[in-house]
Amino acid sequence: MSTHAVPVEKYHGTGNDFLVVDAGEGVGDRSAFARAYCDRETGISAETVDGAGREGDATGDASSGRRGADGVLFLEIGERYRPTRVVMTLVQPDGSTAAMCGNGARVVARWAHDRTGDHEFMIDTQAGTRRATVSPDGSEATIEMGTPRFDPASVPVDRDEPLVEEETEGLVVTAVDTGVPHAVSFFEGGRGDPDGIDSVDLDAVAPPVRHADVFPQGANVNLAAVVDAGGGDERGRDGDGHETPAVIDQRTFERGVEGETRSCGTGAVAIVAVARRLGLIDGDTAVTRPPGGELRITVPDDDHATLTGPVAREFSGRVAADPR
Length: 324
Ligand SMILES: N[C@H](CCC[C@H](N)C(=O)O)C(=O)O
Prior knowledge:
Blueprint: E1 5-13, E2 16-22, H1 30-38, E3 50-53, E4 72-78, E5 84-91, E6 97-98, H2 102-116, E7 120-125, E8 128-134, E9 140-144, E10 166-168, E11 171-177, E12 181-186, H3 202-210, E13 220-228, E14 246-254, E15 259-261, H4 265-277, E16 285-289, E17 295-298, E18 306-310, E19 312-320
Parallel strand pairs: 2-4, 5-7, 12-13, 14-16
Antiparallel strand pairs: 1-2, 1-19, 3-19, 4-5, 5-6, 7-8, 8-9, 9-18, 10-11, 11-12, 13-14, 14-15, 16-17, 17-18
2,6-diaminopimelic acid is lined by residues 16, 98, 101-104, 180, 220, 254-257, 261, 264-266.
């Protein structure tokens, strides 16, 4: 049993919040570490870590004051590469490991920027290597997210045809892989509509879909509502002739968190990919509005998707490597 203390840093992207630990710090049982420190009742906060420095960003701090986190990012930085590479492993609050995490990858880019001052990185995830960029002032990060895949083997779904707009355990869903499996269900009304997505008891409707037999590895479950279809046609262009992005309200119940999060980046890309496939939006760009902020997504036909949004640093300190 190891009793040493390890440095931890807390970051969030649109309220999806993560602890960051250097992979070289020798945390023996990563699952136990994540289960203990991510707990929303008894987990980490600026007040509970030793030597906490509240050197975080003053603005945009959507998750400040919350104990715990949506996961722990164990990171290994390789500064001898150009651009700098970071190997990312996300261990979730239930102790499982997720192959990819969009907001987590955005946090990784910001963390690497804070260490190196660089603005471009390669992030090695279990879903592949992703290029990341950080804005000049460090407040925003963009990740290349690969190409969303609907084929059954990729998601995976346990059937021969893609799962598109089919009733599954009470929700009409489309299944897509954006590095991790997602089920996306479109509703008529957005946030603020009395019958819209905020009227749904997500903690009740999502678990049967998340555990449905058709998803052999489970799925993250998204509710979405198109608020504005945007587009590149005459009507959809702004005064300068640019395509205006679609606007889509988002809620996501995450596998591994086993609850709703304030934001989910792979979910945002999944929603926009499904909206395009179903012909619900006009262009290939959209802003999604999860509870924790706004994300900008592009899903071009012939190129990888991208995910952009704010990232912020909250605090740092030390915790026991073995939480027991
Ligand atoms: N919050 C993450 C998703 C983590 C994926 C994970 N919940 C799973 O698939 O098990 C994101 O921003 O993309």
